Amino acid sequence: MKKLLFVLIFVATILTGSAQNLLNDQWKFTTGDDSSRMRPEFDDSRWTNARIGELWESWGFPGYDGYGWYRKQVVIPSALKKVALRNGGLTLKLARIDDVDFTWFNGKLIGQTGDVPPNYVGRYDVERIYTIPAKLIRWDRPNTIAVRVYDHSGGGGIYGNDVSLTVRGLKDMVRLAPAIQEADRVLKDVTDYALPFELVNDSREKINGLLKVLVLSDFRDTVSVRESPVELAARSKSSISIPLKGLKPGIYRVTAYFSSSLVNKQVKFNFAIDPETMTTTADTPPDFADFWSRAKAELASVEPGYKLIKVDSLCTKSRNC
């Protein structure tokens, strides 16, 4: 009876493995920068035990700005090999990273978001979702994840709840994203605008669904509600535009939802039109929810007296006090 129960549990693990998080919270961390740290054979045994998902100021590195490295080893069972090969590998989610990251798997760069000086581009508010090709996986042996982080100022490190490693499923193979090209999604001299979206289907399945888009003003008045049928061929990319008319200077909140019998995807974002000419002040700026969540996390890590020290320092440098 015990043997039968073990077999049932093992089979269930194989069948549901693609949805299970293969990571635990045991990561390593150190400050500074050294390119050899991305190598699987690098010795990180003397590094600090990291609190993954929390800014590094809150667990041992207050006030630190600059480079830091995270490392993690994970054994991936060969029982997941078949589904991983079929669906294109694994999906690594690193929540959000303040501000820039370069991420390696077994010594191979699998993703980068933002850039470091002298071409600094911060991306603290962007979800990190990277694909790990099946060919890079060492089945039933340790695999190494290495994340190089650059923090320009304020809080630093990997923060947020969605840190996971899973076998890719259909939901990972369909992506919905805004396709606004303008920097910071700020448009100029626009009253009518075709709001662009991109839908990507990397799966072998043909997917028919409906794209629903809700646009609100900065005062939460409904600007537009639209629905558009979508046919996604296998391994294809589609561009869809939602027409908006009579737009005024302001900040607009968008919720887009793609629904089908196979998979559902949702994305929320803001865009602005001539914000400098707004006649009234918006309740919140673009991406305020993301900003406020990050700000609260940073404030929680600030030691008492920090603001006074900073103010005195600025007064000395500027001589304006």
Structure commentary:
With 321 residues, this protein is an alpha+beta fold. It has 2 domains: 167 residues, Galactose-binding domain-like (Jelly Rolls, Sandwich), CATH 2.60.120; 115 residues, Immunoglobulin-like, CATH 2.60.40. Helices cover 16% and strands 42% of the residues. It has a 6-stranded antiparallel beta sheet with strand order 2-1-3-8-5-6, with no helix packed on it. Strand 5 and strand 6 form a beta hairpin. The termini are far apart. The N terminus and C terminus are likely disordered.
List keywords for this structure.
single chain; 321 residues; alpha+beta; Jelly Rolls; Immunoglobulin-like; 6-stranded antiparallel β-sheet; 5-stranded mixed β-sheet; disordered N terminus
Strand order, sheet with most strands: 2-1-3-8-5-6
CATH class of the largest domain: Mainly Beta
Please state the second-level CATH architecture of the largest domain. Answer: Sandwich
Percent of residues in helices comes to: 10-25%
Low-confidence stretches at least 5 residues in length (pLDDT < 50)?
Answer: 1-18, 304-321
In one word, what is the shape? flat
CATH homologous superfamily grouping of the largest domain: Galactose-binding domain-like
How many β-strand runs? 17
According to CATH, the fold-level topology of the largest domain is Jelly Rolls
